[in-house]
Amino acid sequence: MKIANLQFPDKPLFLAPMEDVTDPAFRLLCKRFGVDMLYTEFVSSEALIRSVNRTQQKLTIYEQERPIAIQIYGHDPESMASAARITEEAQPDIIDLNFGCPVKKVAGKGAGAGLLKDIPRMLKITRDVVNAVKIPVTVKTRLGWDDDSKIIVELAERLQDCGIAALTIHGRTRAQMYKGDADWTLIGDVKNNSRMHIPIIGNGDVTTPERAKECFDRYGVDAVMVGRGAIGRPWIFAEIKKYFETGEQHSILSFEEQKSILKEHIIASVKWLDIDENTDIESVSNQRLKGIIHSRRHLASTPVFKGIPNFKETRIAMLRADTLNELFRIIDEVEEPNSFHI
Q: Within this chain, do residues 201 and 320 fall inside the same structural domain, yes or no?
């Protein structure tokens, strides 16, 4: 499968762009475990053209992450085109347009999935961005605004006519947010539309290797994008690929190895958000750190501690810990579920 001049292996796996999740610390871990395409967090076009420091930081990418896309969002065509030109200077492989974020602070302002209520504006933004840059432009969107306006089959053709190089579809409407089950039927309809010639990437509820295989086999998509299923579990990509090879599902890491990866991710987050490259991590191990707070979503979501009896109090303590020494002590003391003695 190819997106513009980017060549991907058979059945490629992509990491979904997620706010406060897909920063470099997490992306590099996912890359180690075999993800084929990375995406940054959402980048606000308005904040980018105003040179907001936190937003500019999101443009940071590393050579070992390639191929990687920077995703931008906004509701104004001129601002989006300007932001795309700024983004291009960061030298991503792709610029992705976020027409799918359902949260109120984005969609409520007419950006993200809010553009599903204003298709002419969405198409103008797409054309203007495609014309503004020399690198490939892709789009990520949803089935429609609500159950009464699932317009993705027609919309996909119109977006393709704007010159995009690939289309990612999340199998929910904006009204669904992240509730209910993702409906891949319409994703399959887009892929099987004879008028479509760009790659179609499916997204939504891919949390197991079996589901990933089903999405390729049943719906014929060119790539599968994994989002929430990777939070606290960057090794999911290696597990899926192992399943593709062997047909057997099993963890590629032991319980202790999984804990070690979680700790490695926390340290990487601290290095990303709290210290410079010359600072010894030991020197800040008793300090309250932003990187620890940033990592809590992964700790809360990880399946590593699933099935451990009477774990509620430990989980609360883990999510309240604000120093590396305290947090790592709690993690180190957690025993593997099947190692408990009666």
A: no
